[in-house]
Amino acid sequence: MRITRKLVGVGVLALMTGCSTISSLNPFASKPKGNLPAPLVDLKASMAVRTAWKLEVGKSRNYQFTPAIAGNTVIVAGGDGTLVRAEAASGRQLWRVKAGMELTAGVGTDGNLIVVGGDKGMLLAFDMDGKQLWKTQLSSEILSSPVVGQGIVVARSVNNRIVGIDAATGQQKWTVQRAAPPLTLRVAPGMVVHDKDVIIAQPGGKLLSLVLATGAPRWEVEVGVARGATELERVTDIGGYPVVFEGDVCAVSYQGRAGCWDVMTGSPRWARDLSSEAGVAVDQRFLFATDEKGAVYAYNRESGTSAWKNDKLAFRRLSTPVSYGRTVAVGDYQGYVHFLSREDGAFLARAATDGSAISSTPLVAGSNLIFQTQNGTVTAIAVE
After folding, report:
1. Phi/psi of residue 120, each to 5°?
2. Phi and psi for 105 in degrees, rounded to 5?
3. Beta-ladder partners of 121
4. Where would a tag sit more exposed on the chain, N or C end, judged by fewer CB atoms within 10 A?
5. Three-class DSSP category at 363
6. In whole angstroms, what is the distance from residue 326 CA to residue 46 CA?
7. What is the DSSP string of 183-218?
8. Distance between CA 229 and CA 6 in Å, rounded?
9. DSSP string computed for 268-337
10. Is 7 exposed, middle or buried (0-12, 13-18, 19+ CB in 10 A)?
């Protein structure tokens, strides 16, 4: 049962499963709230980008779907239950199936198994040919994409119960119940498999590392430190996926910090104050992040020192960035993809998708960058 009430100056709060989620700060929304978005200025492109292919998978509704790469293919899902596997280079469909129910999260894969979140907390597993293998009921709604590693599927329901499930049988092997703050964003904090562990972004701004085989905790760190006197001021959830790169795991939180921690121990490398509802991108030299006001930041990955900031996309509700070659790209609430210089943040090019918001995490597939919109268009943009 969902009950709503008004909060002055904020909007609607949706009360769910014993905790509250801020719908008005929902990054899945198609339009920004409050401040007007910066208009797009004329741009003389200094690099060539083009649409390599597009496919449709159905609207995301009030959920967030991020494609997954498996070998030379991409797997995508839509809110209406559509699941598609296509060639990443050409977009040619290998198969398209219906899950038999509406979907709420996905896609997770290890190249052998595909997992998605279904309606009312149902977890669904498919083989690489699109055949459903099993389904299992979780305790509540699934917003975060499940992940697969070491023969274990890890899924998290909205009440912050984390389960490890046997990838072959769908049988539950372990459960970890973590406390959730009284007020959280309605986002889909991500998970990432690293070696024999799974690293999980948590409500309340924490990163948690668990052993895949048993669910035993490895370490836990605070990305965002709750501040302020009210529950609203103390919201500091992590948005997007943690990123593992060369011994570091990096992340960013709302009303919190961006930074990197040792992936084996959780020991801090560096952290800088930043508020973001999206995730980070990391490459050999930089960590890239977007803040809630629409600025794009680059930090030195080793030290955390600021490299540059571009604030010309103010309040355009930016997606998680993606780094490729000499560019860093970011999507916005109107489906535009903005290409910035990796070195100084200057605009290099712009591409359009379908006019609806890009809130999923972009992917690199060969020379293509893959974006999924809320209206269900998956677009591969070739960077030349």
Report:
1. 60, 35
2. -160, 150
3. none
4. N
5. strand
6. 12
7. EEES----EEEETTEEEEE-TTSEEEEEETTT--EE
8. 19
9. EEEEEEE--SS-EEE-SSEEEEE-TTS-EEEEETTT--EEEEE-TTTTS-----EEETTEEEEE-TTSEE
10. middle
Q: Which of 227, 228, 208 is nearest to 218 (CA)?
A: 208
- Residue 172 tokens, joined: 């539950």
* Other Cβ atoms within 10 Å of 146 Cβ, number: 26
The model's pLDDT over 147-203, given as tens digits with 9 standing for 90+, comes to: 999 999 999 998 889 999 999 999 999 999 987 766 666 667 899 999 999 999 988
d(CA 330, CA 278): 11
- Entry field: residues in the chain: 384
Measured CA to CA, the distance from residue 286 to residue 302 in angstroms comes to: 8
Structure tokens at 191: 């998970």
Question: In this structure, are residues 54 and 378 in contact, taking their beta carbons and an 8 Å threshold?
Answer: yes
Report which residue type is found at 63: Y
Instruction: Spell 332-360 as b/e; 16+ CB within 10 A means b.
Output: bbbbbbbbbbbeebebbbbbebbebbbbb
By CB atoms closer than 10 A (0-12, 13-18, 19+), residue 178 is middle
Q: In what order do the strands lie in the sheet with 68-70?
A: 68-70, 73-77, 82-87, 93-98
Positive or negative: CA dihedral 279, 281, 282, 288? negative
> In a 3-state reduction of DSSP, which class is residue 136?
strand
Each residue's pLDDT tens digit, 332-341: 999 999 999 9
| Tokens linked to 177 | 């119940």
User: How do strand 64-65 and strand 103-109 relate by DSSP bridges?
Assistant: parallel
Tell me what pLDDT residue 12 has: 28
Question: Does 107 sit behind a cis peptide bond, omega within 30 degrees of 0 on the bond before it?
Answer: yes
Whole-model pTM: value is 0.90
- Contact between 255 and 237 under an 8 Å Cβ cutoff? The reply is no
352: nearest Cα among 54, 28, 29, 35: 54
